[in-house]
Amino acid sequence: MEKTNEAYAVSERLIIRSFNMQDIQAFYQYRANPEVARFQSWENYTLQDAETFVSKQMAQSPDQAGTWFQYAIALSANNQLIGDCAIHTLGAEPRNVELGFTLAPEYQGMGYMHEALCALLDYVFGSLNKHKVIAFADVRNAKSIRVLERLGMRREGHLLENYMSKGQWIDEYQYAVLRSEWMDKP
Ligand SMILES: CC(C)(COP(=O)(O)OP(=O)(O)OC[C@H]1O[C@@H](n2cnc3c(N)ncnc32)[C@H](O)[C@@H]1OP(=O)(O)O)[C@@H](O)C(=O)NCCC(=O)NCCS
């Protein structure tokens, strides 16, 4: 299989695969949407930003300590990019990873992210053999909090003014799930 189309995980409706050049337009469309960017680090996202980002991702490999790797979420029916999920392999403890995720607005509210992250966590704890997955959510980001809690992730902390975003210090919740908890879930 070509590296750029490599599938890392699959679910009923989705493929979790590498990014490729055909994804740039769809990726740009949702990243440039202010509602999608509201609780994220970026703003005023340009097509050039999307091209640079996708090119860099295509040259990277997953699970390198101290780096993020972005996985494309595509519909299995037609390989259309609908969002992405990312893993940050922590530099200080590479057996633990941090999760990030984004879905294009037109594909929200249909359970796609839940489905994608279930497949991703199976891959992270199965194929990558990780010990713990953590995620941070802006305390105002109700949709993201619902995604994390629907996965069964535990709120482990309320971190005050933990993150500088768009000129403002942001409070975040830290969520986590252990390998033993994920593997033992009913
Ligand atoms: C966070 C984000 C991915 C959540 O998207 P989402 O569509 O709400 O999440 P899912 O795809 O898992 O869909 C869940 C919703 O679909 C509904 N749903 C409909 N059909 C469903 C199905 N077949 N299976 C499961 N859920 C279904 C669920 O009830 C749920 O709605 P609710 O939260 O109102 O109860 C999205 O808001 C986003 O991309 N935001 C911008 C980026 C961002 O802030 N990322 C978080 C950074 S940590």
From TrEMBL:
Q: Where is the N-acetyltransferase domain?
A: 14-186
Q: Which domain of life is it from?
A: Bacteria
In this record, what's one Pfam family? Acetyltransf_3
Looking up InterPro entries in the UniProt record yields:
Acyl_CoA_acyltransferase, GNAT_dom, N-acetyltransferase
Q: Kindly give the PROSITE patterns that the UniProt entry links to this protein.
A: GNAT
PANTHER family referenced in this protein's UniProt entry, alphabetically: GNAT FAMILY, PUTATIVE (AFU_ORTHOLOGUE AFUA_3G00765)-RELATED-RELATED, N-ACETYLTRANSFERASE DOMAIN-CONTAINING PROTEIN
In Swiss-Prot or TrEMBL terms, this protein is called Ribosomal-protein-serine acetyltransferase
Species, as recorded: Paenibacillus silvae
Source organism phylogeny: Bacteria, Bacillati, Bacillota, Bacilli, Bacillales
